[in-house]
Specification:
The chain is mainly alpha-helical. Helix content is 50%, strand content 8%. It has a two-stranded antiparallel sheet with strand order 1-10. A two-stranded antiparallel ribbon has the order 2-3. Strand 2 and strand 3 form a beta hairpin.
């Protein structure tokens, strides 16, 4: 095996939730030992943080019937189940057609779900309500989908076609997001580029995305259903398919042996004795998407096993929770006063510590609730949960609910 082939094989080991978890916990171990450059870690405050998460869960879900952390929750912003209503009323020719449409919607919407900034709002015509951040992006992308913006077939609006995604016009998407001088959105160009690359990648792989239809992101539904054994599919197989087949959409990222590593960044404290030294993977949007594809598969009769193989999401709500509860503290408080690029070591460090601490927090929450990992998987601990608690405490600490550490978003990570 040549050097490049060896590097490519090593690169593929980073395209897994196992690598995300292992490397995150390595950095947490260094943090607890006081050996990280940017953050101090106080494990003694983790129980108090977990208590705050548990209280948030009990407040939001008194019966503890917590749904999975997935994009579908945001489609129900304002208490109205938009997808449930649309799916119920549509005349689907088959359950597979419904599954492809659900995949189309989830994939496109998740890829549009990088932070929009604190000023952007979306006003929904149907309800007259205004939504911001993730809920606003979800409702906006849902309206675009239901109006046929992503469809190449005028008589079939509820789909997203590769050809259409690759040819979306920036002005039209900006209008659909209601972007203007008084309503600016962070990272709009990055989102458009991501959708264009999605269309190109999907069109180039009809054997994956066009098994029973023209190439479309929703074709991944058929690809995954074909992998189910005995009607069951491991959650890790969902993520693997996303990383394998959608990996090329990520822009300007680190490559190793010709393999695009996607949401993988460098940190000097992560040392190995091979070509992956310094590399810390997260795959945040890919894992968010994997979580979001579970329910359409279940709805089609496919069981999904091993959900806890996926990791917590390295994003600012979960990460902000640990700073705001004192589990993490910046060695240099001045770093909180400026925005940092996503590849800055302080951000990479923060994200890695977040992933590892989410595992530990979930274990404490389950113990407090008297539930097992099978009864209360990480996806529920996130939804109920760490993400909601991160948003809640941000609003308690800062009037605009912003995170305690600012990241410059290009629309493709956060």
């Amino acid at each position: 095996m040549g050097a490049e082939d060896m590097d490519a094989a090593l690169a593929r080991t980073l395209l897994s939730p196992k690598a995300v978890r292992e490397r995150a916990h390595r950095l947490l171990h260094l943090g607890v030992a006081g050996e990280l450059p940017h953050f101090e870690v106080d494990p003694g405050k983790l129980c108090r943080c977990a208590d705050y998460v548990t209280a948030t869960i009990r407040r939001n879900y008194p019966t503890l019937q917590v749904p999975l952390h997935a994009r579908w929750r945001h489609f129900a912003a304002g208490g109205f189940d938009r997808w449930g209503t649309l799916a119920r009323d549509a005349a689907w020719p088959s359950s597979a057609a419904k599954g492809r449409a659900a995949f189309d919607l989830a994939i496109v919407s998740v890829l549009l779900d990088a932070g929009a900034g604190s000023r952007w709002r979306y006003r929904e015509d149907a309800s007259g309500e205004s939504f911001s951040r993730s809920e606003g992006l979800a409702v906006a992308s849902f309206d675009m989908f239901s109006a046929g913006l992503f469809s190449a077939r005028p008589n079939e609006p509820l789909r997203a076609d590769a050809a259409r995604l690759a040819a979306l016009e920036p002005a039209g998407v900006a209008r659909a997001f209601q972007v203007g001088p008084e309503n600016p959105m962070t990272g709009l160009d990055g989102r458009l580029s991501l959708l264009a690359r999605l269309g190109e990648v999907v069109a180039a792989a009809p054997e994956v995305f066009g098994r029973h239809d023209d190439p479309r992101p929703g074709g991944l539904f058929d690809h995954l259903c074909a992998q189910a054994e005995g009607g069951v599919l491991p959650a890790e197989a969902i993520l693997r398919a996303i990383l394998d087949h959608l990996g090329p959409i990520w822009p300007g990222r680190i490559t190793l042996g010709g393999v695009n590593l996607g949401d993988t960044w460098r940190h000097p404290s992560l040392v190995t004795h091979d070509a992956t030294s310094g590399l810390v993977p997260f795959h945040k949007l890919s894992q968010w998407l994997a979580y979001s594809l579970i329910e359409p598969l279940q709805d089609a009769g496919i069981g999904v096993s091993g959900m806890d193989a996926l990791t917590g999401l390295a994003e600012y709500r979960n990460g902000g929770l640990f700073i705001d509860t004192g589990v993490l503290a910046l060695r240099d408080p001045a770093l909180a006063g400026t925005a940092h690029p996503v590849d800055a070591p302080v951000i990479v460090e923060w994200r890695a510590l977040t992933v590892a601490l989410l595992d530990d927090t979930a274990a404490l929450v389950r113990s407090s609730l008297g539930l097992t990992a099978e009864q209360f998987p990480l996806a529920k601990a996130l939804e109920g949960g760490a993400w909601a608690a991160g948003r809640r405490i941000a609003r308690e600490r800062r009037p605009d609910g912003s995170p305690p550490l600012q990241v410059v978003s290009d629309g493709t990570v956060f």
